[in-house]
Specification:
Jelly Rolls, about 15% helix, alpha+beta, Glutaredoxin, eight-stranded mixed β-sheet, single chain, disordered N terminus, 4 domains
């Protein structure tokens, strides 16, 4: 099979029997013939030259979309599978802002060895009604579209993958076509990045109209630009008007659905610092702006550009920078990677930590990280036993934890007068979660540590509240897990860190004070393993001795859960791997009386909690 990567620099078209389709409208059953493309490697090419003897597959791709990039290797494999069977593959880039320089650089980075063209006028995209990258179209020998949609079902939603592909939709359609059979599933929804059509913005008709410069840019600066700027994790930037109108319709959809910015706790159930949840007024502003034609407005209304730290440290230069001891290679495509890396700290005295900041060595693949400490040397042994940098499973009981990071989160200093103890002669163990980007990558991330500059009056402890369940039966779509813990001394809660794995669906924690008052701690109703982080309360919450902290969660181990790592579902047991399951809520807290701190540490252990759970009633 000949692989023709047709990413058009200039597209000259002459359509004989095909009128343009409305984006998203089905083109299945329509005949497509007679267009010509400019191929920068071989000159002008006609559809007849590009078409396969038995069938032609057209796939729309983008250099910026990570989901599109992740299909480059599978598409090359598809090409090899059908070589010699009269099927040809044409890949088209329909994105107006991805010019020759960007495409050439992308081809070099991803080691694409084929001619590349760009559909600047989006003529072919309009012809087929394509709306997403990646999106595939299967055209038979007579020029009739027989299938359109996704390549396979590896993505549940944008950037959220299954553990394994369960249906190769495009491959199945090709097999059925070549066998002379009807296409069983002729159309599926393609998940990916939208193909941005040209927008003709309107001028504001009156002084009260919502404009980009006066109203929208400030929202993007405050809520989006941490990630949506060059060198960060987001697939595109939102730094100016041109970039914003390109993605405006998609921005409106994701903010209305509250898919972005990512913020999991539901409103009103706990009050947190630096909430990334958009206010209803902000959503309304974006919606009104799009509805009114996306006017730019008066240039004098544009706020000054947001300034970001040039050295990458948002809290300023750290007192200590701990860098992974060696680079780790991330494969191009496949399952996400969970990996632990040991970094020696090298202090012969305890240190008080007031803030920890993570700097991704490769923002394209780093998704989240958790920072443990180990004073036993067990992590070093696991690292030594694994031939690759780091090791693949926890396999040890951490001595403590000093924070974590996820895409889009900001470093959070501890309240004044508090600190986390970094034990002497210990190691930092960084648990990294990597997303493959579509090409081989390397990462060597760093953690910046800030030490206390004044005496620490209160030591922060992580209080784990365990959900006591050790088996998650297959087929059950609502598995309830509960746990509770009686606070042994007077404390103040400063943060909460929920933790479950792939089967998790809901997670809630409350605190019931001795007088019966119930305080909401956190409630997440759409758990996502890929978006877990610590949440810091706006104000420390007093929890008197005898307070009961309750945990309640639900998991789905049925085939209806697209995040289920097992197909078909199987019995899942408690364990450290993401394919195992667990349920823990970590409460960051300080003891009101320093003399009680070691009692808090002693009684927070799982065995102590298990014993206490037998005697819940006072």
């Amino acid at each position: 099979m000949t692989l023709i990567v047709s990413w058009s620099l200039n597209l000259l078209s002459n359509f004989v029997q095909a009128a343009s389709e409305e984006p998203g409208k089905s083109s299945v059953g329509r005949k497509v013939t007679g267009f010509r493309l400019n191929d920068t490697a071989a000159g002008q090419r006609s559809f007849g030259e590009l078409a396969g003897r038995s069938a032609t597959v057209i796939v729309f791709l983008s250099t910026e979309c990570p989901m599109s990039n992740n299909y480059l290797d599978p598409l090359a494999e598809l090409a090899g599978k059908y070589e010699g069977q009269g099927v040809k593959l044409v890949l088209i880039n329909p994105n107006r802002d991805e010019g020759q320089t960007q495409v050439a650089k992308h081809a070099q980075e991803f080691q694409i060895k084929f001619p590349m063209l760009i559909d600047l006028e989006q003529t072919v995209a309009d012809l087929l009604g394509a709306k997403t990258t990646p999106e595939a179209f299967l055209i038979d020998a007579d020029g009739v579209v027989r299938y359109r949609g996704r390549i396979d079902d590896q993505y549940i939603s944008r950037l959220k993958r299954r553990e394994s592909v369960t249906r190769h939709d495009l491959g199945v359609a090709i097999d059925e076509l070549l066998a002379g059979k009807p296409i069983t599933v002729a159309e599926t929804e393609a998940l990916g990045c939208p193909i941005a059509r040209p927008v003709v913005p309107k001028h504001a008709k009156d002084s009260n109209a919502v404009t980009f410069n006066r109203d929208v840019m400030k929202i993007l600066q405050d809520r989006c630009q941490n990630c949506h700027r060059p060198g960060q994790a987001a697939p595109f930037s939102l730094l100016n008007y041109r970039q914003a109108i390109k993605w405006a319709l998609d921005i409106e959809r994701v903010v209305t659905d509250r898919a972005m910015p990512p913020w999991k706790p539901i409103a009103g159930f706990g009050h947190f610092r630096d909430e990334q949840r958009l206010a209803e007024s902000e959503i309304a502003t974006i919606t009104r702006w799009v509805a009114s034609g996306m006017p730019e407005g008066d240039p004098n209304d544009l706020p000054p550009p947001r300034e970001f730290s040039k050295d990458g440290w948002q809290l300023g230069q750290p007192d200590l920078v701990l860098t992974m001891t060696e680079e780790f290679e991330i494969y191009a495509t496949g399952r996400d990677i969970i990996r632990q890396f040991v970094i020696p700290i090298g202090f012969d005295e305890d240190k008080w930590v007031t803030a920890v900041e993570f700097r991704a060595g490769n923002a394209r693949v780093a998704h989240h990280a958790i920072f443990f400490t180990d004073s036993t040397g067990q992590a070093r042994k696991l690292d030594a036993e694994d031939p690759l940098p780091g090791f693949s499973r926890i396999g040890f009981l951490p001595s403590g934890a000093i924070g974590g990071w996820a895409v889009g989160t900001q470093p959070q200093p501890l309240p004044d007068g508090t600190g986390m103890r970094l034990p002497k002669n210990s190691d930092l163990v960084v648990q990294m979660h990597y997303h493959p980007s579509g090409k081989p990558e390397r990462d060597r991330s760093a953690i910046g540590v800030h030490f206390a500059k004044s005496p620490v009056q209160k030591q922060v402890a992580g209080l784990p509240v365990f959900g006591f369940r050790f088996q998650w039966p297959e087929g059950d779509d609502r598995i309830k897990t509960t746990g509770w813990f009686r606070v042994p001394v007077d404390v103040h809660a400063i943060s909460v860190f929920p933790h479950m794995h792939m089967l998790g669906k809901e997670f809630k924690m409350t605190a019931t004070l001795p007088d019966g008052t119930v305080i909401p701690l956190i409630n997440i109703e759409d758990w996502d393993f890929n978006w877990q982080q610590a949440y810091f309360y706006k104000d420390p919450i007093p929890l008197p001795k005898g307070t009961i902290i309750d945990l309640e969660s639900y998991a789905d181990n049925s085939s209806r859960n697209p995040a289920n790592p097992n197909n078909p579902p199987r019995l899942v047991t408690f364990g450290e791997q993401s394919t195992n399951e667990m349920c823990i809520g970590f409460i960051g807290c300080t003891a009101d009386n320093n003399a009680d701190f070691f009692d808090l540490l002693r009684l927070r252990r799982p065995r102590a909690q298990a014993g206490a759970s037998i005697k819940r009633e006072p």
